[in-house]
Amino acid sequence: xxxxxxxxxxxxxxxxxxxxxxxxxxxxxxxxxxxxxxxxxxxxxxxxxxxxxxxxxxxxxxxxxxxxxxxxxxxxxxxxxxxxxxxxxxxxxxxxxxxxxxxxxxxxxxxxxxxxxxxxxxxxxxxxxxxxxxxxxxxxxxxxxxxxxxxxxxxxxxxxxxxxxxxxxxxxxxxxxxxxxxxxxxxxxxxxxxxxxxxxxxxxxxxxxxxxxxxxxxxxxxxxxxxxxxxxxxxxxxxxxxxxxxxxxxxxxxxxxxxxxxxxxxxxxxxxxxxxxxxxxxxxxxxxxxxxxxxxxxxxxxxxxxxxxxxxxxxxxxxxxxxxxxxxxxxxxxxxxxxxxxxxxxxxxxxxxxxxxxxxxxxxxxxxxxxxxxxxxxxxxxxxxxxxxxxxxxxxxxxxxxxxxxxxxxxxxxxxxxxxxxxxxxxxxxxxxxxxxxxxxxxxxxxx
Amino acid sequence: xxxxxxxxxxxxxxxxxxxxxxxxxxxxxxxxxxxxxxxxxxxxxxxxxxxxxxxxxxxxxxxxxxxxxxxxxxxxxxxxxxxxxxxxxxxxxxxxxxxxxxxxxxxxxxxxxxxxxxxxxxxxxxxxxxxxxxxxxxxxxxxxxxxxxxxxxxxxxxxxxxxxxxxxxxxxxxxxxxxxxxxxxxxxxxxxxxxxxxxxxxxxxxxxxxxxxxxxxxxxxxxxxxxxxxxxxxxxxxxxxxxxxxxxxxxxxxxxxxxxxxxxxxxxxxxxxxxxxxxxxxxxxxxxxxxxxxxxxxxxxxxxxxxxxxxxxxxxxxxxxxxxxxxxxxxxxxxxxxxxxxxxxxxxxxxxxxxxxxxxxxxxxxxxxxxxxxxxxxxxxxxxxxxxxxxxxxxxxxxxxxxxxxxxxxxxxxxxxxxxxxxxxxxxxxxxxxxxxxxxxxxxxxxxxxxxxxxxxxxxxxxxxxxxxxxxxxxxxxxxxxxxxxxxxxxxxxxxxxxxxxxxxxxxxxxxxxxxxxxxxxxx
Lengths: 448, 524
Description:
The complex is a heterodimer.
Chain A: H1 2-22, E1 35-41, H2 46-50, E2 65-66, E3 76-77, E4 80-81, H3 96-103, H4 111-117, E5 127-128, H5 135-143, E6 145-147, H6 158-167, H7 188-194, E7 199-203, H8 224-228, H9 235-238, H10 241-244, E8 247-249, H11 251-259, E9 265-269, H12 281-296, E10 304-310, E11 336-339, E12 347-349, H13 355-366, H14 373-377, H15 409-447
Parallel strand pairs in A: 1-9, 1-10, 4-5, 6-12, 7-8, 7-9
Antiparallel strand pairs in A: 2-3, 6-11, 10-11
Chain B: H1 3-11, H2 20-46, H3 56-68, H4 87-97, H5 102-128, H6 130-142, H7 144-150, H8 156-176, H9 179-195, H10 201-212, H11 220-234, H12 236-244, H13 247-259, H14 268-277, H15 279-291, H16 298-316, H17 329-342, E1 348-350, E2 353-355, H18 357-380, H19 398-408, E3 414-417, H20 420-430, E4 433-436, H21 456-461, E5 467-471, H22 472-477, H23 479-491, E6 495-505, E7 511-521
Parallel strand pairs in B: 3-4, 3-5
Antiparallel strand pairs in B: 1-2, 5-7, 6-7
Helix pairs in contact in B: 2-5, 2-6, 3-4, 3-20, 5-6, 5-7, 5-8, 5-17, 6-17, 6-18, 7-18, 8-9, 9-11, 10-16, 15-17, 16-17, 19-20
């Protein structure tokens, strides 16, 4: 009898263990953020987008960039609002070599000359945008968190910074897709898979046939899919249909929001509306607004965070000297905005951050092991949250900026004075008429 | 016509009644009638007052009042200065400042309606005696036209109240020739203009009256002083616009009103207004002018000019509105009351039964009042319909939709509707910006008070507009734009999020479910 009981207990324990192993428990988020979305747009510096944003570490008033720093500080070009002179927007060179020339050993005085070397009108680097050009982003900054010390991870262009975005590493250090892909470089997706944290990589205009092996067959801008979606550079992912099911067209983002199936971690790569100069900024803002509005209009909003960042500086001027953390970076500052019901309201966060700060937040939130020393030591974007506060209700941010047609209180008080005064005037006339008639009647009675 | 003539008029209809119990009961009957009339006026104006939500115009005026009261939810959605003066909205805004809601807006309008009933009684009593005043007050208390408009947050109810006050004060002046009443009438006229600027037509009515009534001797100087009082009061309108820098929009609106394309057929007023005033009421007023033509005096000139001047003007004006002729309703009621109270029909012989003229008169009076009372009752009973005439009442489903929008869509989301009517309701109840696709971008072709969306497709592609609202009322008026809107629903992946449906009778006697309002979420 006892023997039977022992056997039954052992069998039950074994069954329980087997069941437990079969249904591995997913890592639970450690903050109220159950859905994290990160979008990488293209090629602008902080000063280029928010250099005049009130309260931010923007363009110094006395700056005048020498045309040729090796010939002295004059002649120089002062920052200007793009569109106010003959300098027209174009795609500035943003190679690693140009970045280092502009950085000029930390003197930060080569922004014009480096481009002039590339036969470009270097003056354009000193151009900036303002709230009229970027109404949605400036409004977003008014209501959520604007990071003004968010650096690109590397003195390089899109490719290397995108690799940092998912791996916290420069891989082999090339700023282009290596012929054999990125090998066994660990990425955040490995960590998420292992921890059973749901994730997707949403790609606008996604072409499943386009990856690092086939990129040569896709001429022109279409190749940017491989650059902006680093996961397509790994043989172990590309060859694994289960993993590739996580890489989906952007339309699924909207469906997932509608169906309440948004994964815990979402990466988004744009296509046309990436704001890559000289493309239309309005269409880029409309694209981002659509993503954020759809999130706000979904059940996921209450437990979500959306981080908008720009992959590299794009050749534009920025006045803050990037801290040196290793041979690759940091690169120049880029704009970054955090939108979340838990984001601090109208907060300018000056914590030093880079793309690995995004990884840091994901790792901390879901209890994942860091990928590299960079993300292990990076500050988290979490400084923009205030989890002690109640979540803010969804509120679409306006795409228009400028003085609103609000009636000033002084106008309202004058309306009251005039109309109530007008209402009182006939009453006074009627009363005086009645009094006059009564007096007249009394006089006539007295006379008779 | 002096006081003696008035006394003879007063004496004329009742002298046969001055016998026995009837004479002793007469004052009580009068008091009972007055109380009953007042009770009916209150009942018809307050019963189920808020059962159906606001219509577009109500939303605009209430929105202006809330903006004046600095309600942060609507201050950006309803500019204080749009098209009309702000007297009613200013009074209403005080109520909003004190915490009043939607019901308060309509209650204030209804209170003005009851005030009009009282003023009709006072005017009728002054012109034709207590009985005529009472009958006229009962007529206006039950008249569907006055009942319907008084139950809405519109400017026409208050304008009619102040116009009737002006009429009373002019009558007061004409009967006494005491100048202060004329000045007071000028002040009241100023308030009428401040309630709605089109009431300035009453000046024309007064001009016609004084020109055609030499027996009401008036010095030009006194008329000038009365006009001065009127302009002093009415000055608040242009002055407030000037202070706010909103004159451009006001002038544009006036020009647009004068030169826009007609919104109704020329037969709109003849076909609509007598029906809502009550065919029997209008018939009695006309019949009285014929039957009592021997007693015609300045009184009838005053009332007729008060009716005809606005009627002719609005008939000629391209823009026609259901409620525009409301200020003519009190003088029509007074003329009907005059006929019903003063005309004594000959005895009626039915076989062996001889019915006295007084009884015939009373029966006619009951018939007229019953007819308008029943029609008012029919019109104020909440019912579902897919047809709607602007100004004729609330918009079923509009409030329900607006509240859904408020509770289920993110703040700052923007809407596209067929026309400005539904857009105004979305803004008022939903606290969301809404455009009408039918509002053209050409400033010469649209009401300048409306904001056009410009390029709707661009706004949808840029995700500046996230919702589309289709409604059966606007579709009935503008099927072209209704279809265009549905095209955009299809083009921008519209997903139905909310709808209001009603069961309506079909031609074969059954009932079918019909969609009144639909809200789609769209995405480019």
